[in-house]
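Example with several molecule types.
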Amino acid sequence: MIKAKVAAAALGMALLCGVARADGDAARGEAKFQECAACHKLETGVNNVGPSLHGIIGRKAGEVADFRYSPAIKRSGITWTADTLDAFIKEPQALVPANRMPYAGLADPAARADLIAYLQKASK
Ligand code: HEC
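Resulting structure tokens for the full complex:
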């Protein structure tokens, strides 16, 4: 219960610190996705080091049935939207402390917007 509240507070903070930009370029985002593609596929049910990102927009965190998530992701209570993805990609450990995604974060807001524009298009 307490952990869920902490996670909710962290999410609130992350969202206050910057709302995702809505003007991303999906073509540039596709190139940027190469950083993620080492671990994530966009096809349904194809898990790698990370879970499939098929249908990620609008999905609840930790919901791919046959992927072993960390307890941190499972308990996060996050629904992946442009805003929550933006916060997660910016600094995964800040949004979901103790998650097991080995990715330091992407500081450039424009690059994150491009990536999210690509995910919105390509993860359907
Ligand atoms: C080195 C491997 C690796 C890289 C690179 C990586 N990820 Fe991940 N990702 C993971 C792992 C492992 C998890 C599961 C984490 C957990 O359970 O704590 C994850 C989880 C996620 C989740 C949550 C999925 C869900 O079903 O809730 C999202 C969203 C995500 N990654 C997006 C990205 C994006 C976007 C990038 C590129 C900017 C990226 N990841 C780069 C390994 C990686």
